[in-house]
Amino acid sequence: MDKQDLLRQLSALAEQHLVSEQEVLQVLRQGKPPASEHATASRFTEILYYIGSLIIFIGVTVLVVQNWEMLNSITRILVTLGVGVASYIMGVLYMQKNVTQKLTTAFFFLATILLPTGLFITFHEAGFDVGTAGTNVVISGILLGTYLASYSLYKRNFFLLFEIIYATWLFFAFTSLLFSGNPILVEWKFYTYRVMITGLSFIFIGYSFRENGSRRELTGPLYAFGILGFLASTLALGGWRPEQSLVWELLFPGIDLAVIFLGVIFRTRAFLVFGALFLMAYILKITSEYFSEGFGWPLSLVLLGLAFIAIGYYTYHLNRKYLSA
User: CA dihedral in degrees (293, 295, 298, 302; nearest 10)?
Assistant: First the structure.
């Protein structure tokens, strides 16, 4: 008996009131696996897909490294860039055939980790210095353009995520091309300011995604990485005695408390958790800088412990009152 015959018989039984809707639903529920088991199996399958992609990438890398002298330029490019392009095409073909989304994402993931490697090898074989900022600008620009086009065509968050990653790479490479070597700029501060800008950008992008149904799942990771980069860079700009920056040391507590406040307003744990952690780090930094000699250091440690307990309790209170619901 095929499905259509079964449905016709079920319809006839329903018209004769010999079977009820509740009975049909009960039978259908009994035939389904438990939701938790299905979700667990789905996650396990997804993990296997990504592990398989990583193993393929490692295999390709080992093949190229071990046989670098034996392989000619064309073979090196085909094994890396060629396999990456092939993986991307496979992902597109499977997606058009409506194959499970996780399998298509696994092919795209393999392409994503192979394409940069392949482009680096391609530029190296073409005689370019792949360590320069200019080459990195070109490679990151190619990848960004590829994933911009991919997201425009397929509207997958996977492409949007790596679009943001490659845009960040392009930002660092382009600013290095413009400003590196400038004697006015201190190298580590230049890097730190760029991390701060990147962190703020992630936060604003995450905020713009918060009301968008399809992009909303990216808001949490963007908030987390954004606030981590922003707070870490502002704390680092304070420096260390005797070359500390009093301006940043004085600004940081206000910035950190503002982050905790925004965590309550936006109802995001990333702001609350990282705000509390960096406030503890700041207190530890200040006490070790200014109170590490004589009897002041033991007293500072006692006060520091009390401060940590207070911050932990206050964070727990805010999380329970404003975020748990």
Answer: -120
Q: What is the pLDDT of residue 225?
A: 94
Residue ranges per structural domain of the chain: 182-325
Q: Which two tokens stand for residue 39?
A: 């979700």
Residue 209: CB atoms within 10 A of its CB come to 20
Alpha carbon 319 to chain centroid, angstroms: 23
Contact 283, 304 (CB under 8 A): yes
Is 0.85 topped by the overall pTM?
A: no
DSSP string, 68-99: TTTS-HHHHHIIIIIHHHHHHHHHHHHHHTT-
- Size (the chain), residues: 325
- Please calculate the CA angle 74-77-80 and round it to the nearest 5 degrees: 145
Which two three-digit tokens encode residue 185?
Answer: 């700029």
Over the chain (325 residues), what is each successive 10-residue block's mean pLDDT? 63 67 63 50 64 77 80 88 89 73 78 90 91 93 94 87 94 88 74 93 90 81 93 88 81 88 81 85 78 59 68 67 58
Question: What is the SS3 assignment for 29?
Answer: helix
Residue pair 49/94 in contact by the 8 Å Cβ criterion? no
* Phi, psi (rounded to 5 degrees) for 208: -70, -25
* Nearest in space to 50 (alpha carbons), one of 105, 112, 91, 117: 105
Residues in CB range of 304: below 8 A, 6 or more apart: 283, 284, 287
Smallest Cα–Cα separation from 241: which of 285, 272, 190, 275?
A: 285
Angle at 48 (CA atoms; ends 44, 50), nearest 5 degrees: 120
